[in-house]
Amino acid sequence: MSLRHSLSTCAALIVAGFGMLAATGCQTTVGGQTLPSPYFLEDDVQFFPAGPEFLLPNQVRALEQYRAEREAFHEQLTNGGTPTVPPAGPPAEGAAEQPPAGAAPP
């Protein structure tokens, strides 16, 4: 019985040791953070620099211009005048010239 008792004690200690290793040596995610890793000093840190807050200024400018032209058109209709379509103006400041649709790239 002494041998059986010592083998069961040894097996219990081995299982407890593996349990402690599994509980303390693995990565875990808490609140969006990955904590801790056995290699946390060697992990590469991901850093994304802040970019512009609003990414669509050209689209907003085009929509504002469209709304202003639409309001002027409706105002001309309600005042009894003949509506005129405004001429196409020069491209917006800072806009790159685009080749026509279907044109081969240079």
Characterise this structure.
A two-stranded antiparallel ribbon has the order 1-2. It is built from two helices and two strands. The protein has helices at 2-24, 57-78, and strands at 28-30, 33-35. The termini are far apart.
List the helices and strands and how they pair.
Blueprint (H helix, E strand, L loop, with lengths): L1 H23 L3 E3 L2 E3 L21 H22 L28
Antiparallel strand pairs: 1-2
Low-confidence spans = none
Strand order of the largest sheet: 1-2
Find the structural class using helix and strand composition. Answer: mainly alpha
Distance between the termini: 89 Å
Rg calc: 35 Å
The largest sheet is: 2 strands, antiparallel
Number of strands: 2
Q: Looking at the chains present, what oligomeric state does this protein adopt?
A: single chain
Q: What is the overall silhouette? A: rod-shaped
Q: Give the topology string: H per helix, E per strand.
A: HEEH
Beta-strand fraction estimate: 5-15%
What's the total helix number?
Answer: 2
Mean pLDDT: 74
Helix content class: 40-55%
Short description, anyone?
The chain is mostly helical and 106 residues long. The chain has a domain at 56-81.
Key phrases:
single chain; 106 residues; mainly alpha; two-stranded antiparallel sheet; 2 helices; 6% strand
